[in-house]
């Protein structure tokens, strides 16, 4: 099974990238095929709400979004990471989420992401730095795509993984990343039976 990890950070080597890649490394050890995409440096134009995609099922804008759409269709499981910016996801990630509207206007046809499983990772400056709200943003996106949103599972069962300050130095936070990855693995294996 295939798992896609997306870092929604503008920093290609920051805490979010570190945490998402750490989760993917754990999933590789569980024999999943993984792919990593960073939004850093990507050319993704904002959705303009024209709804041309309703007829073509693709956006008229030519940019890096098509690579992301193809990766989303490829995956069975999805991990999305974001830094906390004003208590929400990064602007880069929000623009990417908005552009996924081209996968939604399939009236009478199942959504391409329907039934897939996803989870979130939020990296903030302080322990109560907006991570839960950022995870809610990610979960809202997953639900809009008709996906199943998961937590980091037992023993914690929070809304997802939460990192404080430097990811590599946050042992508790990295444990939530590990738990999220293992929970995703377990859910996918259960669904694959």
What does the model show?
The chain contains 6 helices and 6 strands, in the order E-H-E-H-H-E-H-E-H-E-E-H. Helix content is 38%, strand content 17%. The chain is an alpha/beta fold. The chain has helices at 15-29, 53-56, 65-74, 91-99, 131-144, 171-191, and strands spanning 2-7, 33-38, 77-83, 117-124, 148-149, 161-164. The mean pLDDT is 93. Strand 1, helix 1 (15-29) and strand 2 form a beta-alpha-beta unit. Strands 1, 2, 3, 4, 5 and 6 form a 6-stranded parallel sheet that branches. The protein has a single domain, classed as Rossmann fold (3-Layer(aba) Sandwich), CATH 3.40.50.360.
The helix/strand order is EHEHHEHEHEEH
Q: List the total number of helices.
A: 6
CATH class: Alpha Beta
Return the CATH topology.
Answer: Rossmann fold
Structural class: alpha/beta
What's the gist of this structure?
The protein has 193 residues and is α/β, with parallel strands linked by helices. It is built from six helices and six strands; from the N terminus they run E-H-E-H-H-E-H-E-H-E-E-H.
């Amino acid at each position: 099974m295939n798992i896609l990890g997306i870092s929604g950070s503008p920093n290609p080597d920051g805490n979010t990238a570190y945490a998402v890649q750490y989760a993917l490394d754990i999933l590789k050890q569980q024999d999943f095929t993984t792919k990593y995409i960073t939004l850093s440096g990507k050319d993704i134009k904002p959705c303009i709400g024209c709804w041309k995609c309703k007829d073509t099922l693709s956006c008229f804008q030519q940019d890096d979004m098509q690579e992301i759409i193809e990766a989303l269709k490829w995956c069975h499981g999805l991990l999305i990471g974001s830094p906390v910016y004003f208590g929400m996801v990064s602007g880069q990630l929000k623009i990417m989420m908005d552009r996924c509207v081209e996968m939604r206007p399939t009236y009478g046809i199942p959504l391409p992401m329907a039934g897939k499983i996803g989870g979130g990772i939020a990296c903030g400056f302080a322990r109560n730095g907006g991570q839960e709200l950022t995870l809610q943003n990610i979960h809202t996106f997953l639900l809009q795509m008709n996906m199943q949103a998961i937590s980091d599972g037992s023993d914690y069962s929070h809304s997802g993984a939460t990192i404080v300050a430097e990811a590599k130095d946050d042992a508790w936070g990295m444990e939530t990343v590990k738990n999220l990855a293992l929970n995703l693995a377990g859910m996918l294996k259960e669904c694959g039976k």
